[in-house]
Amino acid sequence: MALRVGSIIYDNLTADPTEPANGEHWFNSTEGKHKRRVGGATEVVPSTTGATTPEGIDIGDTAIIGVAADAARADHQHALPSPAAPANVTKATAAAGTSLKVAREDHKHDITTAAAVANPPNTANAEGTSTSLARADHTHALAAFGTGSGTFCQGNDARLSDDRTAAGLRSASTVVAVSSATAPTSGQVLTALTGSSANWQSLGSITSNYKQSVFLEKTTDATTTSTSFVTLLSQAITLAGSTNLLIRFSAGVSNTGNNAQTFFRITVDGVVKRGVSVVASSVGAVESAAMVLKVTGLSAAAHTVLVEWRVGGSTGQVRPVAAPDSEHASLLLEEVAV
After folding, report:
1. Which of 279, 286, 293, 295 is nearest to 329 (CA)?
2. pLDDT tens by residue, 282-325
3. What are the CA-CA distances from residue 254 to residues 222, 248, 279 (Å)?
4. What sign does the CA torsion over 174, 175, 178, 184 have?
5. What is d(CA 309, CA 313) in angstroms, rounded to the nearest whole number?
6. Which of 20, 27, 76, 153 is the most buried (most CB within 10 A)?
7. What is the pTM of this model?
8. How many Cα atoms within 13 Å fall on the side-chain side of residue 166?
């Protein structure tokens, strides 16, 4: 028996066909359902719209085909759960969240704030561990004004404006005491008395150890073939009262012989005080000679200082005129008190 639906007539069967063809429709009277064959599969043709409320939509729901045979109305509507107030913003670890509700377009987060911590002296920089944020007009508590440890000095504190007596000057190794020094007078300089104390002294007293100096140099060319000492420079000096004489001598000398030796010595009032020799590395090679000595125990009187020279062979030469860039002989005498 056939079933007419509108102008379409379907086979009215008590069971589904054994081998229905794609596109074939029939009515299963046992199940009371209109069916069809599509793509090699049998499916129920929706013939009514359901009166059941559509399922609500939750965040994170998995997509499913569903099992209902009813068709949805064109104006159906799914329910969305109303969202609660969003969580506060804090300095906490980012998280996707677990709520099944969506946020409204105009939703707004609050920000968790808290009072700032105190900031006492010697506080080290730190990011902190609080999850609360700071307001733009937040303030930190500072230590109280005072004169003790851990307090701040006010701008009108007398310690910022009154005169202070320095107890010492800090050096890399120690503090040099100056608290006992009186105010200086014009021309005085701060002078170390020991490794840990200093005071003001007149420049004259500092330089009083230096008495006088006399300088002499060879201005004409000189040569010698003598193997006995002869005079190269002679200088007289009268000591004013000290008994000490600093003597500095330098020379640039050449020799006409290869490996020939040239000798120099210093005498004071005929007494030999110091000697030096140089060896020519080649014919005419210029070598340097120098002597520095301190003669003590001299009387406050006139004294004569000689620079003498001799050779071991060939000809020794000191020629400030012929060889001004390399040869010379200079003598400096200084009377000192110490």
Report:
1. 286
2. 999 999 999 999 999 999 899 999 999 999 999 999 999 999 99
3. 11, 20, 9
4. positive
5. 12
6. 27
7. 0.43
8. 13
The residues, any chain, with a CB within 8 Å of residue 96's CB and separated by 6 or more, are: none
Within 10 Å of residue 222's Cβ, how many Cβ atoms? 20
Nearest CA-CA partner of 37 in 18, 12, 64: 18
Q: How far apart are CA 216 and CA 306, in angstroms?
A: 11
CA pair distance 94, 83, nearest whole angstrom: 20
Provide the 8-state DSSP code for 158.
Answer: G
CA–CA dist 243, 296 (Å, integer): 6
- Count of residues making up the chain: 338
Question: Which residue bears the tokens 């000057």?
Answer: 169
Distance from C-alpha of 186 to C-alpha of 111, rounded to nearest angstrom: 69
